[in-house]
Amino acid sequence: MLLYVGLHKGETEAIILAKRNNCWVALDDLKARKVARSEGVKVIGHWAFQSV
User: Fold this and answer.
1) Separation between Cα atoms, residue 2 and residue 37, nearest integer Å
2) pLDDT tens for the 52 residues of the chain, in order
3) How far is residue 33's CA from residue 49's CA, in Å, rounded to a whole number?
4) Which one, out of 1, 17, 36, 51, has a CA that is 20 to 30 A from the CA of 45?
């Protein structure tokens, strides 16, 4: 499994799964969101959760 420096295992797994399945990922950590975007993954951030 590819590990991104500074991310938790769950965040890394979520990014990998979203990339593999071509779907969005919901992340509240700024660094994790930046990594996901750099990998071409569409991200839903923490503000989206607050408006639900």
Assistant:
1) 16
2) 466 788 999 999 999 999 999 999 999 899 999 999 999 999 997 665 655 5
3) 14
4) 1
